[in-house]
Each structure stands twice: as structure tokens, then as C-alpha cells.
């Protein structure tokens, strides 16, 4: 399960995923966070492999998100 919480509104977004890959995390961030709440200032994660991947880091850097 991938979970995101909007710090300001405390709104929770969760999505059950069979495989939490970098591509799935990118889709989740775009679909459930950026399009609903706008581009976040920062992203806090557990530093799993999908969050430390070069593709994911370039994706969030291009959006201007700190990690």
C-alpha cells in the first residue's frame, strides 16, 4: 500500500499496489498528489529503493520538489 498525506489539509491518499516500483510511485505522485493538491514543497519518504531511484529523483527535481 502506498500512502500520501497532505500536510496542510491532512487528507490521506492510499493506493494498493502489487508492485511498488519507481514507475508506479511516479504515477501515484502525479495522479494523487500533484493534480489534486498542486506541486508539493517537499516529499518525505522511507528512502525505499523506489524513492532513491535516479528516474524518480529527476522527476521530482524537475517539478521542484525537495526530497
TrEMBL record:
Residues 1-67 form the Integrase catalytic domain. It holds the Pfam family rve. One of its GO terms (molecular function) is nucleic acid binding. One of its GO terms (biological process) is DNA integration. InterPro entries: Integrase_cat-core, Retrovirus_Pol_polyprotein, RNaseH-like_sf, RNaseH_sf. This is Integrase catalytic domain-containing protein.
